[in-house]
Design brief:
This protein has 367 residues and is α/β, with parallel strands linked by helices. The chain is 36% helix and 11% strand. The protein has 12 helices and 10 strands. Helix 3 (116-135) links the parallel strand 4 (98-103) and strand 5. The radius of gyration is 20 Å and the shape is globular.
């Protein structure tokens, strides 16, 4: 049974910045007005050819019911969850006091295409669609510049074209790329993002480079796939740090989205331990790896880890840095974190305001 849309309450007077909201097209036809005729014909005749061979419709292995979306998030007038702005307002933005929400587009946005030119056309179309269907009619929503990460030249063009448009707040790529993200083939993207003053939003998802989602192959169950989000995020961070991305781009900021975060302190300790013994291999690193992790990475809260003792989660925030934590809900997915109930440990009013609002406003230049 679908849940009724909640009304705003006195407890929700505090405004939040939601750093992970997923919009979706009602159908691929929504993108047609933003594609040149040749690519419209290509979409209708051939469709996509992504690097993940186990693709079926909008779901990838392991198949998720309704694309992993909440059963109560289907708009009453039809279409998939996340496709109806008015319903998004009524179900999420208004009752939860969302003063600003970051749109995160993933599957079908061009970054997973084998045909690099078609991927570039799709990324451009998705960026135009975000503005036309969401950011223009709803000023509370900010788009992310989706780029075809395997086509750095096209990605740079797309970033530069959006750099002056304040309706875009970050650049979106996937950690499941063809190669580790520290490789120099991706550096032009980082250079363009740094020059534009845009953080890199790296969202874990089913978008990938065609590799199995774990180092030992494909998991049997969805739960195995979901856990794999963490090693992907760790590998992304290690690659970017060890390859020297942040020495080359000292102003670059990375937001690790929907990838967990309690792993970050232990990863920093482990990298430092190995670097002490093998630092001669990476003379380009001028500081311990954990310092790059601390200075250049932000983390969204959803899905919130929930230890038996909530105080343990507060300790993780202490180790990571309270200024590097960003609240997110993952609306409209099934593991959505309701801001009224998420993160249930005591904190000061100052820290709560920073976590739910202030840190994101500073990072995304919302003031």
């Amino acid at each position: 049974m679908n849940k009724p849309v909640r009304e705003a309450s006195a407890a929700q007077k505090a405004m939040i910045v939601d750093c992970d909201i997923h919009p979706l097209q009602k159908s691929k036809a929504d993108l047609l007005p933003f594609l040149e005729k040749g690519w419209r014909d290509h979409m209708k005749t051939f469709g996509g050819n992504i690097r993940q061979g186990l693709w079926a419709g909008q779901n990838v292995y392991p198949r998720m019911m309704a694309g992993g979306r909440r059963a109560d998030a289907f708009p009453p007038n039809g279409g998939p969850p996340g496709s109806d702005l008015d319903f998004m307002r009524k179900q999420h933005l208004d009752p939860n006091g969302v003063e600003c929400g970051m749109l995160i587009c993933g599957n079908g946005s061009g970054m997973e295409e084998r045909n690099l030119d078609y991927g570039a056309a799709l990324s451009h179309a998705v960026n135009e669609w975000q503005i036309e269907f969401f950011a223009r009619p709803e000023p509370r929503l900010r788009a992310g510049v989706v780029v075809p990460q395997e086509n750095a030249e096209a990605a740079v063009r797309e970033i530069e074209a959006r750099a002056s448009d304040r309706r875009f707040s970050q650049v979106i790529i996937s950690p499941r790329a063809n190669e580790p993200l520290g490789r120099r083939r991706y550096w032009p993207i980082y250079a363009a993002a740094e020059a534009a003053g845009l953080p890199m939003g790296i969202h874990n998802s089913n978008v990938n480079g065609g590799h199995a989602s774990t180092g030992s192959g494909w998991p049997t169950f969805y739960i195995g796939e979901h856990y794999a989000f963490v090693p992907h995020a760790q590998a992304m961070a290690v690659s970017m740090i060890m390859e020297g991305v942040f020495e080359r781009f000292p102003k670059l900021k990375v937001v690790s989205i929907e990838s967990g975060y309690t792993w970050a302190p232990a990863l920093g300790w482990r990298m430092d331990r190995h670097w002490e013994k093998m630092r001669a291999e990476t003379p380009h690193l001028k500081r311990p790896p954990s310092e790059y992790l601390r200075d250049h990475f932000w983390f969204t809260t959803q899905p919130v880890e929930e230890p038996d003792d909530p105080a343990h989660l507060a300790e993780m925030f202490d180790w990571i840095g309270w200024d590097k934590m960003l609240f997110s809900t993952d609306y409209p997915h099934w593991d959505y974190d309701d801001p009224q109930y998420a993160i249930r440990f005591p904190m000061s009013d100052e820290r709560r305001a920073a976590l739910f609002r202030g840190n994101a406003r500073a990072l995304y230049r919302l003031d």
